[in-house]
Automatic annotation (TrEMBL):
Keyword field: Membrane, Transmembrane, Transmembrane helix
Entry superkingdom: Bacteria
This protein's name: Hydrogenase
Transmembrane segments: 41-59, 71-92, 119-138
Entry-linked InterPro entries: SOI/HabA-like
Species, as recorded: Mycolicibacter sinensis (strain JDM601) (Mycobacterium sinense)
Native organism taxonomy: Bacteria, Bacillati, Actinomycetota, Actinomycetes, Mycobacteriales
């Protein structure tokens, strides 16, 4: 079986998410909360760029295979759920967890709960991604002991 280059996959998924963010920007007008739609557009674009940067850094990370695998999946989860949850919030018109851009908007309880779960879980995932990446980029990490 061929070994998958995770750095290259991150580049591919990053460009795809960037594209999804651009396409989201084209359809924000008819959403229940167009301002949140703009946020979804920006999340797609910015998270796509983040994945591209992570893909470019991939070969410089000094982590075990297990940590690299965890980092890869957490990064994909966090970035795509960030875009998807923000897009769902725009479509549903939720506002409980996003009081600034969601002011005056309220969705059904299940919609608010779905958006809350997405936002909370992606926050934990992205914090973990940043900490793991920082550990892998630590200046002395590639020096022999």
């Amino acid at each position: 079986m061929r070994r998958v280059d995770k750095g290259r996959l991150l580049l591919w998924f990053g460009v795809l998410l960037f594209l999804l963010g651009l396409l989201t920007g084209l359809v924000t007008g008819p959403m229940n909360n167009p301002r949140m739609g703009l946020s979804a557009h920006l999340e797609g674009v910015m998270n796509g760029v983040f994945l591209v940067v992570l893909g470019l850094l991939w070969g410089r990370l000094r982590l075990s295979a297990r940590w690299l695998t965890g980092l890869f999946w957490l990064a994909l989860y966090g970035t795509y759920i960030n875009w998807a949850t923000t897009l769902a919030a725009a479509i549903f018109g939720t506002g409980r967890t996003t009081p600034i851009v969601g002011a005056g908007h309220h969705g059904a309880a299940w919609q608010e709960n779905l958006v809350d779960a997405g936002l909370y879980s992606l926050s934990v995932a992205m914090l973990a991604v940043c900490v793991i990446a920082l550990v892998g980029l630590w200046p002395g990490a590639d020096q022999p002991q």
